[in-house]
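Q: How would the structure tokens look for this protein?
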Amino acid sequence: MARKFFGTDGIRGLANGEKLTPELAMKVGMAAGLTFNRGEHRNRVVIGKDTRRSGYMIENALTAGFTAVGMDVYLLGPMPTPAVAMLTRSLRADLGVMISASHNPFDDNGIKLFKADGYKLSDAVESDIEKLMNDDLGKRLSRGRDIGRAHRDEEARTRYIEYAKRTLPKNIDLSGLRVVIDCANGAAYKVAPIALWELGAEVFSIGVEPDGFNINDKVGSTAPEALIAKVRELRADIGIALDGDADRVIIVDEKGEIVDGDQVMAVIAEYWHTRGELRGGGLVATVMSNLGLERYLATLGLGLERTQVGDRYVLETMRAKGYNVGGEQSGHIILSDFTTTGDGLVAALQLLAVVKQMGAPVSEVCRRFAKVPQLLQSVRYKDGKPLDHKRVVQVIAESRARLGETGRLVIRESGTEPVIRVMAESDDAGLVKAVVGEITEAIRQVA
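A: Here is the predicted structure in token form.
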């Protein structure tokens, strides 16, 4: 059965649009609260958010829903997604909620749910919540003393900062490093600069003046130009760009060059491998990760397990097969020794540990392999299924044949918007450009 509200990463949409309204958020609170009512003890839920103006509206609606079915609510305020997952476990909550649309523009928002163990809900549980949302819940509301209450948790920020700092090896601090941190005017605008400063770094911050509307606006991991300029201006050792909810990270080296998630995973995996801390015999990445990463890991005797796009699929494979490093080229890095979801700050700290240990420039530490020429383009469509069109199918088949066994072609529909993404890679850069161009043009003609 197709789900109406939940998508590939919780509920996401235009705030007060067709999908995401206060009414819907309250129903989510009631239905999820009833689903996670786990016995006679006082059930509790933690709620974090990023800095979007609509977060206030959704937070209050969720709080009304949860308290109406007898759950106590702990409000964390602006807090990274991985912090919400961690605090759900730390505070022994029955459920965790993050209000965020990640790297999307400010007028979007979303609701992500976490189980008591800090992991995201399965599709089956989300479907159960949707079914409850469609029921008449009036008869199941709490009354009298059973109605829940809401608390503002003033210590949550400090808890997460200390947790992030403890992920560094004990003999390493960040003294002597000039670090520029770009928090995307988002959820980590307070915690990330503080954590870096307390670890000894000289910290310069941008994207730390949220006004409710400027999240991800010309700052953050999806718009690194401001960070690049600041690193060059200050002659910093490294730049760190988080996204709106701080579950992903992009690095900029001292030369102002971007280091993507593939390189970050390679650095961490190799370092952990030399220390005997890497599990699974390699790492997990998606079909979008560069072929150069796979080849480099092979030279170390390590493997690369590929999944479909989406951090939940990476994490599922990591848990099933015993890996402790995984992620996406976009910078969504999961280090399961520490986290149950992507954590941009923790991933950056692990990379900084290698930089300090090696005593080498970031440009040297983070260039573990030469990228195979890769091109990704997106095509927006109005309706229908362009990938099923006869002409598109034919062009795709011909392109795969031209790339042969030494190249790769990945074509997928976005799970959150009407967009088809076309990615090709091969040692022949001209062939890559031609193949992507032909496929995207064929899609445009029928879309």
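Residues 228 and 257 are 7 Å apart (CA to CA).

The two ends are 26 Å apart (CA to CA).

Upvote if useful.
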